[in-house]
Amino acid sequence: xNITIMAILLILVVVITVITKKVPFNxxxxxxxxxxxxxxxxxxxxxSNFIADQLASMMKSAGFMLLFAFLYFQMVTEAGMxxxxxxxxxxxxxxxxxxxxxxxxxxxxGGFSILTGNFTPAYLIxxxxxxxxxxxFNFDRNAAFMIAQTAMAAIGFIPWGIGMAYTASSAGLxxxxxSEASAPWGLCFIPVIVLQWIYFGIQHxxxxxxxxxxxxxxxxxxKEKSDNLRPQFFWINLLVFIGSLVALGxxxxxxxxxxxxxxxxxxxLNYPKNFGEIFNKVxxxxxxxxxxxxxxxxxxxxxxxxGMVGAISDSLIKYCPEFLxxxxxxxxxxxCVVIIYVIPFQxxxxxxxxxxxIGAGFGIPATAxxxxxxxxxxxxxxxxxxxxxxxxxxxxxxxxxDTYCKKAVPIQTISNAIVxxxxxxxxxxxx
Length: 431
Prior knowledge:
It comes from Candidatus Scybalomonas excrementavium. The chain is mostly helical and 431 residues long. The protein has 21 helices and no strands.
């Protein structure tokens, strides 16, 4: 069968599966690519070999790092380190709280919490703390979600993040080099963050009648006490956390090694007798992500090693006007929020090798093609009903998913475009 037709069929099958929801998405990624490989004439042994090589590369670059990163951040979250920092900040503000401060807090806490590397725990840190304040000040929680997500997107370049892991695996690039290339994009979010504060502040004033606070902050609510809280070890946990960031950012120590050491120290200090309980909480989350990563990499292994990437690239080069082809990655970047509203980001990620192949033809380095998607794609993944983390965020904020997504898509599309424009003006975007 023609390779180009097979590649198109493979993508269509995946898209149809997602839209119809008749078959689990992971199952399709596990089975259909293998069938396509066999139909193209590759033997079972050949297919299994390039899949095994791809999986080995994924585990080396992301799999082991994610395991220990999840363990570490779960422990410091259980110990109450993040809650202590955020609660102290809120208490310090006291009666100075107003809508502008609420938006700033949302940005700060959202950006801080995404250091856990995963949107789900970041939402679990950010929204339960701030939800009572949103309600007290009648602040639009749809806006709060978008503001928090924008801050999280700006920090999306961290090498241990789950978005980085998915992107690096799909693109066949290292997380470290992608992190270095995408870090400048985080700075390009600053204008968007400020503009969102202005826009949502104006909207709040129109809806409520004043931009100022309309109530005083309630006394700190008593939270359910957890047996895993370790307030006595706060400063030590904070030093280990800062030391880990320094090791990653300054000394460029391998992330998996940093998190192994941080995990062992934190476990011995905080949970020497019940570490297994923490692992039991992390295990299901890590297993779900690992299964998805394996499925994506099987898809990617077949896509890359059977000539599908080259075939699609050749077809685009042959039939697409050159002025559009050169900027195909920029066009897809600008449209990503709308596209991922209906198509899962895993399918979108599978096209990265095509973008890289086309970019190479115009002399654009692979990292320059893919780096813009690291942070900016976070706008899209928070504004789609095809992503499970959207449901987590909406549940925590007591929002309807479909209603939120319809409000978020146009705003996040504009926000995404402003980031791209900022990157273009300051030379961060390479054309």
